[in-house]
Amino acid sequence: MHHRLLILGGTGFIGPHFVSAARKRGFAVTLFNRGRTNPHLFRDIEILNGDRNGDLSALVGRTWDTVIDTAAFLPRHVRETTAQLRTAVGRYVLISTISVYMPRPAPRDEDSEVVKIAAPDTETITVETYGALKALCEDA
Q1: What is the pLDDT of residues 107-134, one digit of tens each?
Q2: How far is CA 128 from the centre of its chain?
């Protein structure tokens, strides 16, 4: 039996690399995305269309062994997606960024201080809020 892998996003930035690596290892890959970024990619695998901003219905009633979240930018989206998938997956892996760490001379590691945001409920992604929102996604 193939390992069933759900990739949230999967067609932009680092997503295609995860898809290709998983396929080479024989994983049964499913993508969940809006179908807007590079829709021509991966036409030979299952793609579930939806939107983390209110339409997770394509995920209902399905199960996977692992989820890789390459598209987490807002903590609310992570909370809603993990709530939907809580009993549908064995492992949830969130791909984050070094931008979560306070600027300082290298090296940085997982024990380094993360950036904070004055308004943690903001959903405006800017250069100033990006790292802090990603840190809140990790917390979610």
Answers
A1: 888 889 999 999 999 999 999 999 999 9
A2: 20
The rounded Cα 122 to chain-centroid distance in angstroms is: 19
* 99 and 39 Cβ atoms separated by less than 8 Å: no
Contacts 24+ apart (CB under 8 A), 59-63: 59/6, 59/32, 59/84, 59/85, 59/88, 60/84, 62/6, 62/30, 62/88, 63/4, 63/88, 63/89
φ, ψ (nearest 5 deg) of residue 103 = -60, 130
pLDDT value, residue 105: 81
Length of the chain (residues)? 140
- Find, among 97, 106, 104, the residue nearest to 133 by Cα: 97
How confident is the model over 29-68, as pLDDT tens digits? 999 999 999 999 999 999 999 999 999 999 999 999 999 9
- Is residue 49 exposed (0-12), middle (13-18) or buried (19+ Cβ within 10 Å)? middle
pTM score: 0.94
Q: Please name the residue ranges forming H helices in 3-129.
A: 15-24, 75-85
